[in-house]
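User: My advisor asked me to double-check a structure prediction for Probable RNA 2'-phosphotransferase before group meeting. I don't want to rely on an old file, so could you generate it fresh from this sequence?
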Amino acid sequence: MTISDVDLSRAVSHALRHEPWLYELELDDEGWASVDQLLGALREEGGDWESVDRAALKRMLTTAAKRRHEIDGDRIRALYGHSVPGRIQRRPATPPPRLFHGTAPETWAVIQVEGLLAMGRQFVHLSVDRETAVMVGRRKCAVPVVLVIDAAAAAAAGTVFHQGNELVWLTDHVPARFVEGAQ
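Assistant: Sure, here is a fresh prediction for Probable RNA 2'-phosphotransferase from the sequence you gave:
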């Protein structure tokens, strides 16, 4: 038996996004860690984890429905979703004109006043399309509210955006005036 790509992705996400210290990993300012150190930590779990190697990591990356991680030479990092203490450094980028965010209906009232806040994560996560926002919002409730963000206007007013991957954009905060409710 081998570790499934889904289980491997979950473990790598946990190690690189949330609790790298449990894996004895050191993340640099951009969230990079050593591939060899990550593999060593995963193999220490024993059992089927002992078979995890670079080929398994690369297969996980290429078969993933969403691009969550990247490898560059001997380094690997999570692209978004960090909750680690300290700030993962990102390069500013120009967002598409509109972005989307799925949330629970009861949260919409708070967002109308405070805007979108990162809450327990390092960044607010925004989707490039309505469908992805609906999928994300369904994690919070069965029938989410899809919010439309005027990203072009927000960026022009000074909101800094970062590209997480092809489907996800990140920012510290979206002021309420740039967020519209939609169903």
